[in-house]
Amino acid sequence: MSRICLCLTGKTIARDLEILEKYRKYVDIAELRVDCLDPDEQFQIRRFPELAGVPVILTNRRIVDGGHFSGGEGARIIIFSKALAFAAADRRRNFAYVDLEEDLNVPSLEEAARTFGTRIIRSYHNIHGVEKNIPGKLQGLRRIGDEIAKVALMPHSLTEVCEIYKAAKETAGMDKILIAMGNFGASTRILAEYTGSWLSYTSIKGEADFPPAAEGQLDPKELTELYRFKSLTAKTKIFAVTGFPLQATASPAFFNSVFNLENTDAVYIPVPADSIRSFLDLAGEIGIEGVSITVPHKEAVLPYLFSQSEKVGSIGACNTIVKDARGWLGFNTDAPGFSDSLLDFAGKKNLRRLKVTMIGAGGVARAVAAELSRLKAKVLILNRGAARARDLAGLYGFDWGCFDNRGLQLMEKHTDIIIQATPVGMEPDINADPLEMYHFSGRELVLDLVYKPEQTRFLKRAAAAGCRTRNGYDMLIRQAQYQYAHFMGREFPLQLMSRIKTG
Prior knowledge:
18 helices
């Protein structure tokens, strides 16, 4: 079973022990990052394993490998030597593991480690890219059979992450640690058991004096509770959300909470994708069964669908795909999720005779426009790009305009409901206000489809004027319930809603 390792990056041993105690119940192993300690602390590390009370990896990482140790190799070797010296008969008081880079050749260190039961992790780090022959690199690292081979790479595309998954399959059964660093590599940290990686490194969040040990590491509590890391197996069903840059999404919390309450052997993971083609290649490689599609891929995915629902065809955007034996099936749950949320917000069964301004003309806006038309609203579409606003408005006979005097004049006749159809799933600019020239009367219903943060500047200004407001979180949950039905082949269990933790 893959283990959770907490990287300890404090400046003092006391601070490392304080953080370890706080997160002890989530971790199996700790890594003492000696290179992060103050210089006068680095020679006080011998007793650390005894004080820690968990197996400890001794690591003193050089700058060239992504660490902080700036001294010479001689000084680094002395620190290793002192940490491994005077080994106790009780192995629990010794370092359980030592991380030695592939180009560090000090036989006396290796002999001392093996003599006293400290297992060697033979490591290679490429903080700039990905090797062409990853299996070969893994297989060539170990000098004797009991060593653990570790390869940590920095992918710059999802295609490179796919190569890492392929390498994991080719080296199945090997004691290894295989890591894709950075934003693209998050899934490899969650699916360590799937890839056969011996452990997953984690760093805590929210402590200014305790920086992450490497880019892309998850919090141990998040890995344990949100992604149920310790219950994942090679047989666990995988679902995902993809988009780019995918910096803000509440979907994993929703779906994983449901899977936990149902005791379903499934996990829902974030997979940032620079192209939909690369995502679908990776999905095929690791067997992803269902996907939530966010910006900018809702339209780009259409050519890759084996079949699509009527709503996808009429809207021209897809936010949900499900794999079956024939290929990918496409659906749009943004539309019903939006209309359910809006009608609840407005307290109406339809929008007949109501006049609406919608801001935006992208993938989400296309679904919103289709539903506004179905619900019989009179609509004005405002967008920075005139062509997109005109084209979308033309599908339904809506008015359209830009953020200029003409657009604001048209808006004066469309103020019963104002909808900000900002792409969901991207990190929004909370200080942006597309209607800063418009003065709210307080009578408007104002809906912003952004859900992180809870209130943008736009919503705050509307609320301050006395408007009733709602963000996009309610829509997110409603459309996710429809997605669940497509993913699982059964209706969403509404009785679970009161118990679901969504962030």
